[in-house]
Write a structure and sequence with these properties.
Layout: E1 9-15, H1 21-32, E2 38-41, H2 44-55, H3 59-63, H4 67-86, H5 90-98, E3 106-109, H6 115-125, E4 129-135, H7 138-143, H8 156-159, E5 169-172, H9 179-195
Parallel strand pairs: 1-3, 1-4, 2-3, 4-5
Helix pairs in contact: 1-9, 2-5
């Protein structure tokens, strides 16, 4: 079992590029942080930190959503996949440490991309873990700036969760009207979890 403190609520968010998961988690956090301290964990954090220090790049720009990150995305994916073959939980474990999550009751993992990510968190934190999938149709995603990129959108980092059918919640964010309902659903779950 983990030597880390046990969180009461671990929310694993996933979704394809431009599905709106970052927008959703940003808005959820604005609300939830008014009444509880939340750890925001980005599994990509340790990957991008390594890349930034190794290749003298801007960590902040790699963590953003702009063209700078896209320039290096394919290379970062290849490198991180090689590391995961050696240790499937490597970046989950490093991200928990990097974002100092151990001291918080509620964790929001905003960028889950692989079955191994979900498996690691469930193995470590059991029933505290819930999965949230944001979806949006391709027309909506294109309208938000999505452009299919070979080597990015057809590899494991974007496709590994496509056949998962047991997410705890799936929210279709195609027209943006679900956001308030989805946020309220997740907020209610957080309140129940921390008060149980």
């Amino acid at each position: 079992m983990s030597s880390l403190s046990e969180p009461k609520c671990v929310l694993l968010f996933s979704g394809k590029r431009k599905s709106g998961k970052d927008y959703f988690t940003d808005n959820l956090l604005k609300d939830v942080r008014q009444w509880i301290d939340v750890a925001v964990i980005k599994i990509s954090g340790p990957i991008k930190s390594h890349y930034a220090s190794t290749y003298n790049l801007s960590f902040e720009d790699l963590m953003g959503s702009g063209e700078y990150k896209e320039r290096y995305r394919s290379e970062m994916i290849k490198w991180s996949d090689e590391e995961r073959l050696k240790d499937p939980g490597i970046f989950c474990r490093q991200a928990v440490k990097m974002y100092e999550a151990e001291q918080k009751e509620v964790w929001v993992v905003s960028d889950v991309r692989r079955k191994t990510d979900i498996a690691w968190f469930k193995a470590m934190y059991g029933n505290s873990v819930k999965t949230v999938r944001m979806t949006a149709d391709e027309e909506t995603r294109v309208g938000r700036g999505f452009v299919f990129t070979d080597g990015v959108d057809n590899v494991t980092s974007e496709c590994d969760l496509d056949d998962v059918d047991d997410f705890d919640w799936v929210f279709d964010n195609s027209n943006g009207t679900i956001i308030d309902v989805a946020i309220n659903t997740i907020k209610d779950h957080i309140r129940r979890a921390i008060n149980s």
